[in-house]
Design a protein that fits this description.
It contains five helices and no strands. About 65% of the residues lie in helices and about 0% in strands. By secondary structure, the chain is an all-alpha fold.
């Protein structure tokens, strides 16, 4: 799985299941950005595994949104699902541009 594919799957997971804060996944199945990346990479939002695919997707999102700590960005009280989707979309676009170089 490429970083772009991981980001795309994570974005789609948030679109489908919704956004939560302060936890990987809530009881309604909504996820935070890390939960979405976990679901994309490992198939489980609550995975505690680590991998280069997970790290690459998390880092690419952080670069795209200009925030080293994507958890803090996700958990901001005013952060919306729409903004998170936009962040993933920007990261996906940046991966596409990087692939063309």
């Amino acid at each position: 799985m490429t970083t772009k594919q991981g980001l795309t799957k994570a974005r789609n997971y948030v679109q489908t299941h919704g956004l939560c804060k302060d936890m990987l996944q809530d009881e309604d199945g909504r996820v935070c950005v890390l939960g979405a990346i976990n679901a994309a990479v490992f198939g489980n939002p609550c995975s505690l595994e680590a991998s280069t695919r997970f790290t690459a997707s998390r880092n690419a999102l952080g670069v795209a949104i200009g925030e080293e700590c994507v958890v803090r960005w996700n958990n901001h009280p005013n952060r919306t699902k729409r903004q998170v989707i936009a962040g993933f979309n920007k990261a996906i676009r940046e991966q596409t541009v990087g692939m063309k170089k």
